[in-house]
Amino acid sequence: MLQRRHWIAATAISFASLALPAFAADEAPDALVKRISGEVLATIKADPAIQAGDMNRIVALVDGKIMPNVNFTRMTASAVGRYWRQATPEQQKQLQDEFKTLLVRTYSGALGEVKDQTLHFKPMRMQPTDTEVVVRSEVRGKGEPIQLDYRLEKTPSGWKIYDLNVLGVWLVETYRTQFAQEIGAKGIDGLIASLAQRNKSNSAKAS
Questions:
Q1: pLDDT in tens, the chain (207 residues)
Q2: What residues does each domain of the chain span?
Q3: What distance in Å separates the CA atoms of residue 207 and residue 200, rounded to the nearest whole number?
Q4: DSSP per residue, the chain
Q5: Fold of the 2-206 domain
Q6: What residues form DSSP beta bridges with 132?
Q7: Distance between CA atoms of 26 and 32, rounded to whole angstroms?
């Protein structure tokens, strides 16, 4: 089940994040996700290196296509919770860097599992004044459809993703529980050290 969540989350991040700047500021959030899903699927299927788990290619994809369309500061701050305001600017930067590496390492292998799945969207109701929305969808392939929702916020440069719901579990909430336990036991520096060690271990396993 966890591995399937990893695959879906990786697909979700990829589907939802390859936005074209010319459209981003004016495009509705559901239209944004719908338009780019096909483009990202084509990118993954056309790149054997990504499918094989090449970390350099995956990091390039994340940095070039995904991160510009995710409010990663908000995502990290939400995952760290109330402790975020206690962290120094340097600690906040370290937390973002290590959290990003953790997510890339965790979900990289799932990119190669993208085959014939399709993404189907549910009708979205929103008011013109809304600044935060949830785009709801399902991933359909073999087996039962899988719930996949996105939380987005409106920014001056367009809509940005800051959380994902995979199989009924919001990604940020999952990590918030883990991070709170780490900080409670070892402090903010302890969480940073723990993430760094986890990333180091994941890197060694991949090599």
A1: 545 555 555 555 554 443 334 444 578 898 877 776 666 667 777 888 887 878 788 777 777 767 777 899 999 999 999 999 999 999 999 999 999 988 887 766 666 566 677 778 899 889 989 999 998 988 787 878 888 888 999 998 889 889 988 888 898 999 999 999 999 999 999 999 999 999 998 777 766
A2: 2-206
A3: 11
A4: -HHHHHHHHHHHHHHHH---HHHHTTS-HHHHHHHHHHHHHHHHHT-HHHHTT-HHHHHHHIIIIIGGGB-HHHHHHHHHGGGGGGS-HHHHHHHHHHHHHHHHHHHHHHHTT-SS-EEEEPP----TT-SEEEEEEEEESSSS-EEEEEEEEEETTEEEEEEEEETTEEHHHHHHHHHHHHHHHHHHHHHHHHHHHHHHHHHHHH-
A5: Nuclear Transport Factor 2; Chain: A, (3.10.450)
A6: 153
A7: 9
List the structure tokens of 147.
């719930």
Which residue's structure tokens are 């719901």? 165
